[in-house]
Specification:
This protein has 256 residues and is an alpha/beta fold. The chain has one domain: Metal-dependent hydrolases (TIM Barrel). It is 39% helix and 17% strand. It has nine helices and eight strands. Strands 1-2-3-4-5-6-7-8 form an eight-stranded parallel beta sheet. The longest helix is centred in the middle third of the chain and has 18 residues.
């Protein structure tokens, strides 16, 4: 069964058919879904999904785009979410220097606060890193020895950046972008990296893989990502599915 390690089913693009779609995932070979929060209300919705569907888990965090709008006392609110056993990670957190929707110094402060929270609650983190490789690596490295685990989602860096992440014992996750024609760097990283550090995801509703590029993405498309990863690693797709599912369950401490 496939593990979609990064989704956003609370997005309004799913408002018309969300429950029908979520209920259909097991019959499409999806055994696990991690719905990743981008804020407090996003997390609350995700927790409701996890209550209705055994195979859905959630992560909680303030996305770097919204760092400047983080409410007072947000860390205490996020910490309280971990009373629910299906909240398994802190994320999606990090830095985004492409859009700069929040000032960079504020992004850094909120990022550090989330890392402190992850250490406190003993949960792994899910990193968003866009055009901020050095700052993200520098900040994460200072917590590497204390974190329960870490994955860089939709990894877009070079082999050199991947090497630094892997040296810290962390994971790299890839989505539909690896099926695009211009995916040279991601392909090089997947070729280079060990199988036991690889995760796959959809990041739905965004980043639908070829041949569905431009459509609304959902977890049923993750098999295209698995097939491409298998091609790159010169492996059977069943072995990629087994390995990436085991890796995600290990990272997020899911034993079922």
């Amino acid at each position: 069964m496939l593990f979609d390690s990064h989704t956003h089913y609370d997005d309004k693009k799913f408002d018309n058919d969300r429950d029908i779609l979520l209920a259909s995932l097991p019959e499409k070979g999806i055994g696990y879904v991690l719905n990743v929060g981008c804020g407090i209300e996003s997390t609350r919705k995700s927790i409701e999904f996890s209550k209705r569907y055994d195979y859905i888990y959630t992560a909680t965090g303030i996305h770097p785009h919204d760092a400047s709008r983080a409410p007072d006392g947000y860390c205490a609110v996020l910490e309280d979410f971990f009373r629910n056993e299906k909240v398994v990670a802190v994320g999606e957190i990090g830095l985004d220097y492409h859009y700069d929707f929040s000032p960079r110094d504020v992004q850094k402060e909120v990022f550090v606060n989330h890392l402190e929270l992850a250490v406190k609650v003993g949960k792994p983190v899910i990193i968003h890193n866009r055009e901020a490789h050095k700052d993200v690596l520098d900040i994460v490295a200072s917590y590497a020895g204390s974190l329960r685990g870490c994955v860089f989602h939709c990894f877009s860096g070079s082999v050199e950046t991947a090497r630094e992440v892997l040296k810290m014992g962390f994971y790299l996750s890839f989505g539909g972008a690896i099926t695009f024609k211009n995916a040279r760097r991601a392909i090089e990283v997947i070729e280079y990296m060990p199988l036991d550090r690889l995760l796959i995801e959809t990041d739905c509703p965004y980043m639908a893989p070829t041949p569905h590029r431009g459509e609304r993405n959902d977890s049923s498309f993750i098999h295209f990502v698995a097939e491409k990863a298998a091609e790159i690693k010169n492996m059977e797709v069943t072995d990629i599915i087994s390995a990436t599912t085991d890796n995600a369950k290990r990272l997020f401490n899911i034993t079922s």
